[in-house]
Specification:
Layout (H helix, E strand, L loop, with lengths): L3 H12 L15 H11 L4 E4 L5 H14 L4 E4 L1 H5 L1 H5 L6 E3 L4 H12 L10 E3 L31 E4 L2 E2 L10 H10 L6 E2 L2 H14 L4 E4 L8 H14 L4 E5 L6 H10 L1 E9 L3 H7 L6 H13 L3 E8 L6 H14 L3 E6 L7 H8 L26 H33 L3
Parallel strand pairs: 1-2, 2-3, 5-8, 8-9, 9-10, 10-11, 11-12
Antiparallel strand pairs: 3-4, 6-7
Helix pairs in contact: 1-6, 2-3, 9-10, 13-15
Amino acid sequence: MASTGAASIAAYLRRWGHEVAFLRVGSDEPSDAIASRVHDSAPDILALSLTSRQWPRARSLVAAVREEIDLPVIAGGLHPTFAPEQVLSAAGFDYVCIGEGEEPMLDLLEALERGEQEPAISNVWVRGGLRPAIRPPFEPIDDLPFMARDLLDEQHGVVHMATQRGCPFPCSFCAARIYGELYRQAGHVYGRRRSHRNVLDELLEIRERDGLSYVIFLDDTFTIHRPWVREFCRDYGARLRAPFSLNARVETVSEEMIQLLAEAGCRHIVYGVESGSPRIRQEVMRRPVENRRFKDVFRWTREAGITVTANYMIGLPGESREDLEQTLRLAEELDAFDFGCFAFYPYPGTDLFRVCRDSGYLPGDYGERPVNDRESILDLPGLAREEIAEYHDRFTALRERTQLARRAAAGQVHERARPA
């Protein structure tokens, strides 16, 4: 996944004259080797953007770095925003950024340059200090500089783009909407979307400078606002037409929209199905959509010539084996080109995290356990960890069967197409 948040902050800091570099580390690279690399680069401050999945390793890496070099460390992103106390209680972390980071990070650098070690900055929680106020989100969002692409390690003309911040949907398992709640409680509106011209200007600049072969739109739900999407399809199709992919919800698309996206260059859509059980979707996930809708939208997408990927979650609170069977059956019926299946993990800040914590489903050492797509960390009363792993294996077997069948069918077509 491209580190777009870090690249946006880096571009903003460069605008104000600061030097920024990005340290990319391998998944198996030893902590002491990474610490030596940080030491050799001699930064004035180390900043990390973290998800909950990255937190266990980040904690050990920062501890190793601080043994090697004494420098201030700040963490931002989803996990520090919604579990700031946990981050600040770990060795080596001096600051946490809650919410957006462009302006707070600039303020922190300027304060450190003045010799202030415990500055009072909105969004920045100082270790040992009081929780900070939340400043209004950056406005207008089009005034942010384009991301620092040299930090993203993009290759072969494949680029990553974000057109909006915030999500209006009330899904209980997702942290995206919690950003909006965080800002709403502070009296601010978080959700914003870039103008079509701003998005296309960035893409045209990339094409002119580096070449452009494919665009991956990272928005949680690209298809939120139909008028915006219709205008985007018209402008993008007229000015760019590079193939692209996006994430969507079946509730937000129509057959007409899917056709417009295909004509503009869309080649791949990822839909979150989550569960095949309408009960789990409605009562647990707060997604009131019927299975019939998924079947219609997947068919419309295929008929438009767009590749479909689906995502599923298993092992949710309140889920039973019958619910898992329904999810497996729906996956077979939808017959997406590919799909992912993930054991549910409760992210801090979400409603389901609070449900799991308050119901006693979270083990005491949950923060120490690595995230595993196959094995749940929860102690669910009606579903054992072994059962969740069993169904993950069954999903994996279904994926293997369908992929092999497609390859075999493609081979047969190829053979028939060969000249005698």
